[in-house]
Write a structure and sequence with these properties.
412 residues, alpha/beta, Molybdenum Cofactor Biosythetic Enzyme, Chain A, Alpha-Beta Plaits, Maf protein, 6-stranded mixed beta sheet, 25% strand
Length: 412
């Protein structure tokens, strides 16, 4: 089954509202093995709705629209659909009673606009809205299913979860889609593609691969599609195992893993603690670590040592080393890691010092130059990176790299 998603609303087109509906629906349909063919956002104008429906691919079996079902004048999806199907709008008494109950519970008056929401195209099957006033509509002919849902996310999700997904599952049970995400840290996308060139050439026809880069981590997604679930899963597992042999040192997690969560799990298993001394990352490593529930079991705290004065007076960094090598140096970041380890009496520590940018670089130390040190009680690992010239990306890349470096140190 192929699907297209159409989200309706001028607020989406001008960037006033972020379209989360399409992503959520696409994910849910994909888990059922339904292939998402196209996603489009359009204005809430009748012509736009007509044009979007007319441009649906001939091979598409399912179209889901969201938005434009409210009580205001700009909500014209229902009117447009009635005209598209050449049918009349009729009063649905069951919907009207639900609207009356809904309005009364909220101590409001039932007005004409509320009543008009109970008007639906005469050829649709109504999808009841238990948490709002706008009903959903299911249209079906011998070519495809068209479903219209409210744009309010929690109302749309309630209808999808309680009415639509189960029905679609019954109709589409002979096709399977599976995704496996492999998280890669420490390789540029172009370098990773070069290394995996032969690995990609030998892909079975039912499998595909996509590179999904983000600052600090590349998500490599393997997708399998077919009727034989066992075969698809075996083929994916074979490709993942091959990948483990090709780049074992760069795989840092799978599926929805987060590096900060994996680090926390590891520290809990080891009954160990960690502290951080951050300069260029400005507290972002501490933020990531403390975003994980239960982090108080292993995270003692940290210091944002942005100035040399703090590095010297609190972390006991040798002033002479700063003068000779600079604050962004191997010598200084190692002393920061050792200093915070001792100050907070933790088992492990992380330290960063760098030039986040966009200014402050030099020929010897360009913007993006970052030194990271991770320390245990008897070992320190230090590494230099040159990330780039975008400040936010540099901070995120440095933070995730540092967390991954500490994981490797703990496991070494």
């Amino acid at each position: 089954m192929k699907a297209e998603i159409i989200t309706i609303g001028d607020e989406l087109l001008i960037g006033q509202v972020v379209d989360t509906n399409a992503a959520w629906i696409a994910n849910k349909l994909n888990l059922l093995g339904i292939d998402i063919h196209k996603i489009v956002s359009i204005s809430d104008k009748k012509e736009s709705i007509f044009k979007a429906l007319e441009q649906v691919d001939k091979s598409t079996n399912l179209v889901i629209l969201t938005g434009g079902l409210g009580p205001t004048n700009d909500d014209i999806t229902k009117i447009a659909l009635a005209e598209y199907f050449h049918v009349k709008l009729v009063m649905n008494n069951k919907v009207l009673e639900k609207i009356k109950t809904f309005v009364i519970k909220r101590n409001a008056d039932l007005n004409e606009r509320n009543k008009q929401q109970a008007l639906v195209p005469e050829n649709c099957t109504v999808i009841q809205n238990s948490i709002g006033t706008a009903p959903g509509m299911w249209f079906e002919d011998n070519r495809r299913i068209i479903i219209s849902l409210p744009g309010v996310p929690f109302e749309m999700k309630e209808m999808m979860n309680n009415h639509i997904l189960e029905e679609l599952k019954k109709r589409h049970k002979n096709f399977y889609i599976s995704h496996k995400n492999i998280l890669i840290q420490g390789l540029a996308e172009s370098k990773l593609a070069e290394i995996l060139e032969e690995w990609e050439k030998n892909f079975p026809k039912d499998l595909s691969v996509a590179y999904l880069p983000s600052p600090g981590v590349i998500k490599l997604r393997i997708t399998g599609k077919g009727k034989n679930r066992k075969y698809i899963e075996e083929q994916i597992e074979n490709k993942v195992n091959a990948l483990k042999n090709i780049i074992p040192d760069y795989i840092c997690g799978f599926d929805e893993d987060k590096l900060e969560e994996l680090l926390g799990k590891l520290l809990k298993e080891k009954k160990a603690t960690v502290s951080v001394a951050e300069s260029c990352t400005g507290g972002n490593i501490g933020r990531l670590i403390t975003s994980v529930p239960g982090c108080s079991d292993y995270f003692k705290g940290g210091i944002i040592a942005y100035s040399n004065e703090i590095k010297e007076n609190i972390l006991n960094v040798n002033k002479r080393n700063i003068e000779i090598y600079g604050a962004v140096s191997k010598q200084v970041v190692e002393e920061m890691a050792k200093g915070i380890l001792e100050l907070f009496t933790t088992d492990f520590s992380i330290a960063t010092s760098g030039i986040a940018g966009p200014t402050g670089g030099s020929k010897e130390k360009p913007v993006g130059t970052t030194w990271i040190a991770v320390a245990g009680k008897d070992k320190v690992i230090t590494q230099k990176f040159v990330f780039g010239d975008q400040r936010d990306r540099n901070i995120q890349r440095a933070s995730l790299t540092a967390i991954n470096m500490l994981q490797k140190l703990i496991l070494s």
